[in-house]
Amino acid sequence: MSEGAAKKEEKPRKFQAIRGTRDLLPPETALWNRVEQAVHEVFATFGFGEIRLPILDPTELFARSIGVDTDVVSKEMFTFWDPFDQRLPPKYQIEEARARGINIQNEGELATIGLALSFQQLTLRPEATASVCRAYIERNMQQLPQPVKLYTIGPMFRRERPQKGRYRQFYQIDAEVLGGSDAPGIDAELIEMVMTFLERLGLEGVQLHINSIGDKNCRPKYVELLREELRKVKDKLGPDSQRRVETNPLRVLDSKVEGEQEIIEKLPRISQHLCDACRENYDEVKRQLALRGIVYSQNFRLVRGLDYYVRTTFEITAKGLGSQNAVCGGGRYDGLIELLGGPPTRATGFAIGEDRLILSLQEQAKSKEVASGEWRVASEKPRVEVYVAWMGEKAYATAIRAAKNLRAAGFSVELPPVEQKFGKALGQADKLGARYALILGDNEVASGEWTLKTLATGEQATFAEADLLKFLGKNRSGE
Ligand code: HAM
């Protein structure tokens, strides 16, 4: 092996973020924060409170909630065995066993149930609804005034094939209304909340699609009818849809495969097979949406990919997203809490894909920028408002104090940690996009008159310390 090749081998491995995950960096993160701030503000006006959930929950919780035949559960979950450590002192082993739901009385029993203990399966949550329901039951929230309105923001994990708008770690803004009645006004108000939020962000080209997928009275009959019809055309369908004819025929409706579209258009539609109660309920949801001035289109193919839904489901699409254009999905899931061991409970909710929402806002901003040249994607505030250019040991002490006071007043300040010539300091301030440079040298410190340079115009003015803060306060960026 040549010396060069040996050297090459010694180079430490460079790591990359794992497939489907990504780092979010400034200034983009400022936009994420702005979006999340709007969530807190808008959702609070609809009476929602924030819940923060664990990222891990038992695999069984997701399998039972979302359904074992769904894509999410059958192939996309990040699941692992959580080993039980038998090297722990017996006292801890007993605690751990009890936490895993195994009622153990004494050390002697540890050996006999050792094997059972080693089988705890955990999953990185693929969505939030199941965990919110788990928390509702576990924390006895049915005893609170109903309905309980909760929202949460955070990362979810699905092992999907990554592409634009589709990631393996993605973020959801999730909202749930649990308990109380199933009055259609609840579904309509929930949709009103998402639309208000998207409007607050100025998202354009938003389209709301709604459907009713019936309930356990009418849906099974429709699914059987659909299956029969699909069997007749099975050989014309692709492999995924062929499989779904047997496992989950509803999902065939949501197929994007080109050659299947004509067939799907001719299939029986659930709207013609709803029972009276579901039809009345759906009509009332639509009336309630109209009362709120919310425009929607009905889409019989909107069946959603998770098993827990009943009656009204909805999706919202936005521009600039290509094929992954759903920014929000949701619907009613009245039976889920009972299925998870809780009392019969009505519930409905939605989740916004935050990555897609941000992408759509950015695409929109890009086209506006081209049109008007002035729309800013990130924070309106420059990252650095005041760059403190100092020279000399005395000036440094003053610069530290000035930086402290300016930061306390809410300005973002860059204070170079080592002395720089003023020319270099001003160049650096320019590079950082600073709005002002505060120049502090021996003369300024001695006279108590500080020089402030506005970098965009080159204008300079001198101020006493107190007046400087007043001036900056009056001329705050973004105001
Ligand atoms: P979902 O339709 O599976 O519903 O996801 C909701 C939204 O999350 C989607 O519309 C999309 O914007 C985003 N999303 C899903 N997967 C990805 C991905 N791999 N990459 C980027 N974004 C993605 C649910 O999760 C339900 N829990 C919603 C709900 C709440 N229903 C009732 N309550």
Quick tags:
single chain; 479 residues; alpha+beta; five-stranded mixed β-sheet; 16 strands; 41% helix; binds histidyl-adenosine monophosphate
Report on the architecture of this protein.
41% of the residues lie in helices and 18% in strands. The chain is α+β, with helices and mostly antiparallel strands. 32% of the residues are buried. It starts with a helix and ends in a 5-residue tail after the last helix. The model is unreliable at 373-379 (pLDDT under 50). It has helices at residues 3-10, 28-45, 59-66, 71-76, 90-99, 108-117, 129-138, 184-200, 219-232, 239-247, 261-265, 276-291, 336-339, 354-372, 393-408, 422-431, 442-447, 465-474, and strands at residues 49-50, 56-58, 78-82, 120-124, 148-157, 169-178, 207-212, 297-298, 310-317, 326-332, 347-353, 386-390, 413-414, 436-440, 449-454, 460-464. Strand 15 (449-454) and strand 16 (460-464) form a beta hairpin. The structure holds histidyl-adenosine monophosphate. Histidyl-adenosine monophosphate (HAM) is lined by residues 127, 129, 158, 160, 165-167, 170, 172, 174, 176, 305-306, 326-331, 333, 349-351, 353, 355-356. Histidyl-adenosine monophosphate (HAM) binds at residues 127, 129, 158, 160, 165-167, 170, 172, 174, 176, 305-306, 326-331, 333, 349-351, 353, 355-356.
| Low-pLDDT regions | 373-379
* Biggest β-sheet strands, sense, barrel: 8 strands, mixed
The number of helical segments is 18
Proportion of strand residues: 15-25%
| Share of helical residues | 40-55%
Radius of gyration: 29 Å
Assembly annotation: single chain
